[in-house]
Every structure is written in structure tokens, then in C-alpha cells.
Design goal:
Radius of gyration: 15 Å
Keywords: Flavoprotein, FMN
CATH topology: Rossmann fold
Order of helices and strands: EHEHEHHEHEHEH
Shape: globular
Bound molecules: flavin mononucleotide
Organism: Rheinheimera salexigens
Structural class: alpha/beta
Largest sheet: 6 strands, parallel
InterPro entries: Flavodoxin/NO_synth, Flavoprotein-like_sf, Flavoprotein_WrbA-like, FMN_Rdtase-like_dom
CATH architecture: 3-Layer(aba) Sandwich
Family: Belongs to the WrbA family.
Protein name: NAD(P)H:quinone oxidoreductase, type IV
Helix content: 25-40%
């Protein structure tokens, strides 16, 4: 059966969406299926580019990439509320021993990009997931002048939240997706 990697994210202005779509390219390169899904928004008026995730999709994924914009140095409230709604799945242990990673976008270079990635990892660890980031064997990790971290892919969108992903940010997101797909397949067949 094909490996399914769930790319679960929230985005208001499109930067996290852009990263999610690059990660999906990497997942395909890693010969897995990418399921791009949105976190249910707290604001019902908020429109999302992809379908809203279901708990069944989350429970049945083989790997997970979780994305959120930086909000005051932390994940967006919608993402925290979503994880707070996963108690049933947590008790069943549906995500235990599945690979996972996190990605984000901030407005400024030192605006909490890495702190947000680390705090986003916490609910995944509580779910029993196996975290992966990006190793320094990826040359763009040494070269980037904006986003892209060992803790996971990231983007710096600028004061007006309109900067395109840099080449380095794109490549790191793609290599992260590929890595997650390969790890998910390896663990699925064990
Ligand atoms: C309420 C709020 C808080 C924010 N806090 C931060 C912050 O702490 N640091 C930062 O660099 N950017 C901050 N930003 C900017 C967003 O993180 C940034 O625009 C991000 O790229 C948005 O991602 P999106 O395009 O996927 O919505 C904040 C934006 C909002 C609306």
C-alpha cells in the first residue's frame, strides 16, 4: 500500500501554503502520496486552499508535516486548538512511532521562526511521533540568508507578508518532504 504523508497546515496570507506545496513535491520525489490538508480555522470566515483535515486522515497517515505561521513567537491559536481536540486519537495511540516534522513562516528573520518550530514539536512528541528535521548535509542549510533551519523548513515573508520563497527555502522544503516520505515508508514496512 502507498505511503501517505499528511501535510497539515494553517495559513492566513499564503506563505505556509507555499511551503506546504513544496514539501508535497518532495514527498512525491520520495515515492509517497502527499495529502495536503488545512487545520480547521477558529474563524469560520477564513478560507483555506485545501480541504479541512478529518480525524480519520490524521489517524491513518504514515507520516506528518505540520505547518503554522509564527504568531508572537508561537504557533497560531487555531493549530494549538486543533491539537487540543485530538485526545481520542492520543489515547488510542494512533500516531505513535510515526515520523513527523514541522514548518513555519515568520515576518522577520529573528521574529521567532526557530522558537516556533521547537514549540510546534511539543504536541507531536506527546503524541509519540518520531521527529525529523533537516540535516546539514543539505548544502542550502549553509547558504540560506532567510529561512530554512535544522528544526524544519521555514520562510521569512517580510514586513508585508508578500516575499516569495527563496531558492534555498524551496530546496530545503523539498528535501524535507522527500526525507519524511522515505522515513515514513521505511517505518511503515517494519
Ligand atoms: C497576530 C500576528 C502575530 C505575528 N507574530 C509574529 C512574530 O512574532 N514574529 C514574526 O516574525 N512574524 C509575526 N507575524 C507575521 C507572520 O508570522 C508572517 O506574516 C507569516 O509569514 C504569515 O504566514 P502566512 O502567510 O502563511 O499566513 C505575526 C502576524 C500576525 C497576524
Amino acid at each position: 500500500m502507498t505511503t501517505k504523508v499528511l501535510i497539515l497546515y494553517y495559513s492566513r496570507h499564503g506563505s505556509v501554503t507555499a511551503l506546504a506545496e513544496k514539501i508535497a513535491i518532495g514527498v512525491h520525489k520520495g515515492h509517497a502520496e502527499a495529502l495536503i490538508r488545512c487545520i480547521p480555522p477558529l474563524d469560520q470566515q477564513h478560507e483555506c486552499k485545501h480541504p479541512i483535515v478529518t480525524m480519520t486522515e490524521l489517524a491513518q497517515c504514515d507520516g506528518l508535516a505540520f505547518g503554522s505561521p509564527v504568531r508572537f513567537g508561537n504557533m497560531v491559536a487555531d493549530a494549538k486548538a486543533f491539537w487540543d481536540s485530538t485526545t481520542t486519537l492520543w489515547i488510542k495511540g494512533d500516531l505513535i512511532d510515526k515520523p513527523a516534522g514541522v514548518f513555519t513562516s515568520s515576518g522577520s528573520l529573528h521574529g521567532g521562526n526557530e522558537a516556533t518550530l521547537l514549540s510546534m514539536s511539543l504536541p507531536l512528541l506527546h503524541q509519540g511521533m518520531l521527529l525529523t528535521g533537516i540535516p546539514y548535509s543539505e548544502p542550502e542549510l549553509h547558504q540560506t540568508q532567510s529561512g530554512g533551519t535544522p528544526y524544519g523548513p521555514s520562510h521569512v515573508s517580510g514586513h508585508h507578508a508578500d516575499a516569495n520563497l527563496s531558492i534555498e527555502e524551496q530546496r530545503l522544503a523539498i528535501s524535507f518532504g522527500k526525507r519524511l516520505a522515505q522515513l515514513s515508508t521505511a517505518l511503515k514496512h517494519n
